[in-house]
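User: I've been trying to design a sequence by hand for this structure and keep getting stuck. Would you show me what you'd pick, starting by listing the structure so we're on the same page?

Assistant: Good idea, let's start from the same input. This is the structure you sent:
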């Protein structure tokens, strides 16, 4: 789910530029801490309306709960509470499930996307083949727009089944590289490492891919009963807006697990495979 809050940290800028309560945004914490609490003051910074989950473009900002004892510190405290920041890490993989479409439309290796798992499972592994699907460059965490696709590690014994397996595995390799980078950033910022991966979209119906993803990451991969999260999220936002759903807690309670894939591969083997993948990426990005 993605939601838009129209005014977040900008409320601190308003304290600085509108009320002249502070000279710099960095001073707001000291001003807010000059009082033990907001003294019952609450601020709704609807300067341009309210975003999710309210979606009201016509409402305007308000400061309520003022008394004769209210000080600028109380207002700053209320503003800081309103503007409490929450962050989400996002990474873009340019070609994920679309690599299966290329197997179908480009190589003509399969007639339908649903056939790829059976073809990939006809061999025990990729036979050392690595597929870097940099058809339009590489996204996070590599960020190389000039990279181009490569299939490496081919031998005389390589078959279309090995290529299909390597294509599926490329989705997991790219996701693993991205999740590992995100986990490092989260830990560096004082957060917790990624404990589980919740998946969605058409590719997640592939059990072989989901198991390989769990093996590479060493954490559970959880597939929900409803895999079209984007469409579901749009419906949820509409439901919140018109009162069908009361709050996000109600929505969270509706989320249900269809299957959890637990890692079975040793961490040493997973690390060796990631090393092979990174070597293949270097080959695809060589100039």
């Amino acid at each position: 789910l993605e939601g838009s809050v129209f005014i977040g940290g900008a409320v601190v800028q308003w304290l600085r530029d509108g009320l002249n309560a502070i000279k710099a945004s960095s001073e707001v914490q000291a001003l807010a801490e000059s009082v033990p609490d907001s003294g019952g003051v609450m601020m709704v910074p609807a300067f341009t309306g309210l975003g999710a989950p309210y979606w009201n473009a016509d409402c305007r900002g308000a400061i309520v709960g003022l008394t004769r004892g209210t000080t600028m510190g109380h207002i700053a405290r209320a503003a800081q509470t309103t503007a409490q920041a929450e962050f989400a890490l996002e990474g873009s993989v340019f070609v994920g499930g679309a690599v299966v479409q290329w197997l179908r439309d480009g190589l003509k290796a399969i007639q339908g996307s649903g056939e790829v798992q059976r073809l990939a499972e006809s061999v025990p592994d990729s036979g050392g083949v690595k597929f870097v699907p940099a058809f339009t460059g590489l996204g996070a965490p590599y960020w190389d727009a000039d990279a181009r696709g490569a299939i490496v590690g081919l031998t005389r014994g390589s078959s279309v089944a090995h290529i299909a397996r390597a294509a599926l595995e490329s989705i997991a390799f790219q996701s693993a590289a991205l999740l590992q980078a995100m986990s490092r950033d989260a830990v560096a910022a004082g957060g917790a490492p990624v404990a589980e991966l919740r998946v969605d979209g058409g590719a997640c119906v592939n059990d072989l891919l989901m198991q390989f993803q769990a093996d590479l990451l060493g954490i559970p991969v959880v597939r929900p009963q409803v895999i079209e999260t984007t469409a579901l999220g749009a419906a949820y936002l509409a439901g919140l807006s018109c009162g069908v759903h009361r709050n996000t807690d109600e929505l969270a309670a509706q989320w249900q697990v269809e299957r959890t894939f637990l890692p079975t591969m040793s961490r040493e083997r997973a690390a060796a495979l990631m090393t092979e993948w990174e070597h293949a990426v270097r080959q695809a990005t060589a100039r």
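That's my pick for every position. To get oriented when you compare it with your attempt: The CA atoms of residues 238 and 244 lie 8 Å apart. The chain is about 40% helix and 10% strand.
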